[in-house]
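To: structure subgroup
Subject: Chain for Friday's discussion

All,

I'm putting the inputs and outputs inline so they're searchable in the archive.
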Amino acid sequence: MLYIREATESDAAEILCIRKSIISQNEFFIPTNEEFHVDVETQREKTITNSQQGGVTFVAEDGERIVGFLVFTRNSMKRLNHTGLFGMGILEDYRNQGVGTKLLLQLIDWSKTQEGIEKICLGVFSTNERAIKVYEKIGFKEEGREKRQIKFEDGRYADNVLMALHIQQ
């Protein structure tokens, strides 16, 4: 049974493990293995700081195991504070099972209870068609593209697709 809850400091090691696993397995994240230098303490501090600044981290649990996470970071600048950006990661064995959708729906429900959040934003590689379909299904709309923003080691490019969902409170 899948359960979505807010992350705690003690979840840092499992979140970090998922992040490392995803970075090593696919090409949908900006940092490469060689560039990713986050340790458990840094991950723990990021979770605490993000929460203190109006953001939230959710985890998806299957039994006692964390199988996915979503981090929403609220913009701290006055003119952008009504917006926030999210990123998420799901273990390979749990993809295509609705985990991402459940995490996103939890974020949307949470954001409706937060003072002043009006817009949830994201950036997604144009090559990540599965994720784009999930975002569109939930109601996110493309707002722009950074053309050829991502360059892969083999010389291929991807656009950074900018998407957003406007929250009705």
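Points worth raising on Friday:
The chain has four helices and seven strands.
The first helix runs from residue 12 to 25.

D.
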